[in-house]
């Protein structure tokens, strides 16, 4: 059965709007900590995969190598991260959380937990589980498409 194109487009816009509005609310909650969205995203990624290469971090954050370099410079100056040479590839630089960075991640998590609880207060646990399962399926399909585009040599950013 053919899905309604208008409904599909509305679903895409809804995902975008929810993501955009969530970022605004989280940004407000983290503003007193004096960090930018880009900085808290770096910290979030490193908290899950400490020691990422700058290149991998740039790719995951959808930033250029130059942009991630400047961001890491500022965060290193602030004492939140440190760069180390990769033990197996002298050309690569890995980025690690410092003790201060780990403490900031813990504070961010506390603040975001409060915000997320408020955001999700109108949604039952079953509804949230159903939505998460749907989004995981959509993400898996998108990763298949991106992988297929990358393999065929097409530009995945268009």
Write up this protein.
The structure is a single chain. By secondary structure, the chain is mainly alpha-helical. The chain has a single domain, classed as Arc Repressor Mutant, subunit A (Orthogonal Bundle), CATH 1.10.10.10. Helices cover 68% and strands 8% of the residues. Strands 1-3-2 form a three-stranded antiparallel β-sheet. Helix 1 packs across helix 5, helix 2 packs across helix 5 and helix 3 packs across helix 4. The two termini are 29 Å apart.
Q: Approximately how much beta-strand content do the residues carry?
A: 5-15%
CATH level-two architecture: Orthogonal Bundle
Largest sheet: 3 strands, antiparallel
Distance between the termini: 29 Å
The CATH superfamily is Winged helix-like DNA-binding domain superfamily/Winged helix DNA-binding domain
Uncertain parts: 151-158
> What is the residue-averaged pLDDT?
88
Strand order of the largest sheet: 1-3-2
Structural class by SSE content:
mainly alpha
Q: How many helical stretches?
A: 6
Q: Count up the domains.
A: 1
Proportion of residues in helical segments: 55-70%
CATH topology description? Arc Repressor Mutant, subunit A
Order of helices and strands: HHEHHEEHH
Shape: globular
CATH class category: Mainly Alpha
Strand count: 3
Radius of gyration: 19 Å
């Amino acid at each position: 059965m053919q899905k309604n194109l208008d409904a599909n487009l509305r679903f895409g816009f809804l995902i975008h709007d929810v993501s955009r509005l969530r970022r605004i609310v989280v940004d407000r909650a983290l503003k007193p900590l004096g960090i930018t969205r880009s900085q808290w995203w770096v910290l979030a990624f490193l908290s899950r995969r400490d020691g990422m290469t700058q290149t991998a971090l740039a790719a995951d954050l959808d930033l250029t190598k130059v942009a991630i370099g400047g961001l890491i410079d500022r965060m290193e100056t602030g004492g939140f991260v440190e760069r180390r040479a990769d033990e197996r590839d002298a050309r690569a630089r890995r980025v690690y959380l410092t003790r201060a960075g780990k403490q900031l991640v813990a504070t961010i998590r506390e603040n975001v937990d409060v915000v997320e609880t408020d955001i999700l207060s109108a949604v039952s646990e079953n509804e949230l589980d159903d939505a998460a399962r749907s989004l995981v399926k959509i993400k898996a399909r998108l990763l298949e498409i991106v992988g297929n585009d990358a393999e065929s040599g097409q530009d995945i950013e268009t």
